[in-house]
Amino acid sequence: MFRPHRPALMLLYLLLLLLTAAACQHWIYQDLRAQAASQSNNLAAFLRYSIGRHATLPAKLGHSPLLQQWLATSEIAALNQYLAELQQSAGVADLYLVGNDGLVLASSNSQDATSYVGRNFGFRPYVQAALAGNSGFYYALGHTSGMRGVYYSAPLQQDAAKSTGAIDAVLVAKVDLEPLELQQQQIAGLKGSHFIVTGQSNEIFLSDVPEWRLAKLDNAPLSSTEQPRYLTKAITPLGQTERRALLTPWQQLWQMPLGANRQNYLAQSQQLSEFGWQLTVLTPATDAYQQLSAALLLTTLLFVILLLGWRLQRERQKRTAQLELHARQLEQRVIARTADLAASNQQLVAQIQQREQTETALAQTEQELVQAAKLATIGSLSASLNHELNQPLTALSSYSQTTAKMLDKAMYSEAKQNLQAMQQLIARLSNIVAQFKDFSRKSAGKNQPVDINKLVLDAVGLVHHQCQRQGVKVRLQLPDLAPQVLGDPIQLEQVLVNLLTNALQAMQQQSDASLAVAVKTTAGQVQILLKDQGPGIEPHHLERIFEAFFTTKQRDGLGLGLSISQRIIQSFAGKLEVRNHPQGGAEFCVTLPLLPMEAC
């Protein structure tokens, strides 16, 4: 028989674990990347709408007759008020008018301490672009406020100057970015992920993580054309590094500082070409680690189950081989003893003493044969089932013969009564077979609400024939309102049948015995109590009664029934306990969490 060594099993387990980890990590990362791509698309659409919708605002407002009128008459106070009203209705941070000399003529924030009026913004690229007759776009720190913003500009020409092409002023709309960073979590659906928006020099201009803002992803300094965006602000490296996943090196991770620690992220990027930006969504790799841990735990559990199944099969084969060997040895001994008896039979007349010795040896051999037959007997339920099936079958045979005779004699009424009786016997047979068929079917492995009263009745029904055969009375005590638990009904029924069968076996040598089964509910729990009138359990056996392969039976049984039953109950957050009842016999108690009424 093949017997794998422990090193081979360990190597097989590690190989299986490694392959499972690599495959699961690949699939998990692919799924996270797909989620990140969807989040990135949502966030990109949000940024394009929230920022880009203001791109044409300066050009549209530049055609306002009031704006042109007040500009022509230099009514600055009216312009300031008008720009403030437009800024509120348009939802931008600021609106201001820059003259062709670069000085701010009017502004929506003219009443604030940080008013732009009178300041020279002629050096700003968006002002220079508009003075050249083009629409302008620029992102930078505010020269006055120091806050990050996006600037849209458009040239403004009065009607009298349109023929000459002269630019009278520049209308500028500033979009504040900080509110967008606060809204993105709800709108983009990042749910724990983070995002960064980088410029042409890999500087982070936008991010939902404050410490990442205005830092660089690489160590290269800003170019001379990019530094003016940030005035005198020093843009320092963030310290971001790239690494590859351990089990799937084709997967690249970003390691980013976050608080006092460094976190690993899956990065999903896309271009926002209209702004000259790159949007990157960063999904924490810890999500993948948690899912991977669950997959490895499931793989380990499956391996243990397979190993346990192999061990059980091996034990069964070993026990079968031992029984076969014992039977062969016994057969050889019988043959040898029979030969001795045949040789001694010729001397029986003269040797009475020798005959008595031979008869004693023969009696001893017969006792050994009886003992061997006892060892070969397995299961008590099958014997009771055979008895219950034979009675209806014998009756059916008798009814069928008498019915045929009645039909020959045209006794149709009596034949009909016989047929009805046969139908009742067939229904009885169907019920008996259905009980064992339902019990033997495989578990679906899914938890569901279980009616405890029905569970107890079904389990008692399976051993009903054995109870009748032994003359054991079953006393049931069930509550009017059936309690319910969450579990697998087939596995729970298996536990109860095992406990009931053990109780019946403990009372085989007793007459007029009874078996008490009671269901009680306490605070948040339901208890199933099974008490027999057997001899009880030896005190020194109580501590080991639930150990695997421990048994007190002299015949049959691998000592796994109670061990497996305890594991089943524990898997449903319950417990299985045993004690010797003060009035005699053993009492088993199954405790399970009670399912709330609203969940039923």
What's the layout of helices and strands?
Blueprint (H helix, E strand, L loop, with lengths): L5 H47 L4 H5 L3 H8 L3 H15 L3 E6 L4 E4 L17 H7 L4 E6 L6 E9 L12 E8 L1 H12 L4 E5 L5 E4 L7 E2 L19 E2 L3 E4 L7 E7 L2 E12 L4 E8 L1 H59 L7 H25 L4 H28 L3 H29 L7 E4 H11 L1 H7 L2 E5 L6 E4 L1 H18 L7 E9 L2 E7 L7 H4 L18 H11 L3 E6 L5 E8 L7
Parallel strand pairs: 8-9, 15-17
Antiparallel strand pairs: 1-2, 1-5, 3-4, 4-5, 6-7, 6-13, 10-11, 11-12, 12-13, 14-16, 17-18, 18-20, 19-20
Helix pairs in contact: 1-6, 1-7, 7-8, 9-10, 11-13, 13-15
Q: Can you offer a commentary on this structure?
A:
β12 (261-272) and β13 form a beta hairpin. Helix content is 48%, strand content 20%. Mean pLDDT is 80; it is low at 365-380. Strands 7-6-13-12-11-10 form a six-stranded antiparallel sheet. Strands 2-1-5-4-3 form a five-stranded antiparallel sheet. It contains 15 helices and 20 strands.
Mean pLDDT: 80
Count the helices. How many? 15
Strand order of the largest sheet: 7-6-13-12-11-10
CATH topology assignment of the largest domain: Heat Shock Protein 90
Class by helix and strand content? alpha+beta
Write a concise synopsis of the structure shown.
With 600 residues, this protein is an alpha+beta fold.
Task: Write out key terms for the chains shown.
600 residues, alpha+beta, Beta-Lactamase, six-stranded antiparallel β-sheet, 15 helices, 48% helix, 20% strand
